[in-house]
Design a protein that fits this description.
237 residues; mainly alpha; Hypothetical protein af1432; binds fe (ii) ion
Length: 237
């Protein structure tokens, strides 16, 4: 039987490195309201709205990706701090599309090879924007690598397997699931069950197989419990 792989918490190492305080105190410190003050979230929310104004077909996409990412993070039993970080990372994962020219970003037809190369620069652009905000700098790896594939054929750096930051592996699944279950100009939304099958088909190649199963599992959990945590987004909406 295949050995079950444990998802490692990327924050655990960091918390251990915080000197002279307990894990609980460190969590409280890191999770303190001032880490993500409303003014910061509001400013970034304005930037997301700008992106969604520019690209109306993806309206609401960032928010849904954040919700799906949180759902998966909860299923993985990550800490409150990590769940919050994942939510923020997912909200801002495509923010770099602001720098993509309209004729490429909004092109209704298939992109040429050259145009696709321009489009592929958006995760690095997203990372560069977030890098400028000191309290969000630690989210950059998860955002910059959200198009890496588990088999190493993704971009920007061709990272493979667990070398891809956990947050990026989570966002990729949430992002793809939302794209499949939303109506686009060129196709209708797929049924949730069909989208699950598509995720399973690409499990181990595009996606982390443990995370795919946890994601699918999380829908049963969500439907049973009907518990939704208040999101940062909704808090200031
Ligand atoms: Fe993206």
């Amino acid at each position: 039987m295949k050995k079950k792989r444990k998802i490692e918490s990327p924050k655990a190492k960091h918390l251990k490195a915080v000197p002279a305080c307990s894990q609980e105190e460190a969590e409280t410190f890191l999770f303190a309201e001032e880490v993500y003050p409303d003014v910061l979230v509001e400013s970034l929310r304005a930037i997301i709205s700008t992106l969604e104004e520019k690209d109306s077909y993806t309206h609401g996409h960032s928010i849904r990706v954040a919700e799906f990412s949180v759902q998966l993070a909860e299923e993985l039993k990550l800490s409150e701090m990590e769940i919050r970080e994942i939510e923020l990372s997912a909200l801002f994962h495509d923010i770099g599309k602001i720098g993509i020219p309209d004729n490429v970003l909004l092109k209704p037809a298939r992109l040429t090879r050259a145009e696709f190369e321009i489009m592929k620069s958006h995760p690095v652009r997203s990372g560069k924007i977030l890098e400028k905000v000191s309290t969000l700098r630690n989210l950059v790896p998860g955002i910059k690598h959200h198009h890496e594939r588990y088999d190493g054929f993704g971009y920007p750096d061709g990272l493979k397997g667990e070398n891809i930051p956990l947050y990026a592996r989570i966002i990729l699944i949430a992002d793809t699931f939302d794209a499949m279950t939303s109506t686009r100009p060129y196709r209708l939304a797929l049924d949730k069950e069909v989208a699950f099958e598509e995720l399973r088909k690409c499990s181990g190649t595009q996606f982390d197989p443990v995370l795919v199963e946890a994601f699918i599992q999380s829908f049963g959990y969500k439907e049973k419990k009907k518990v939704v945590r208040p999101s940062l987004w909704k808090k200031i909406a």
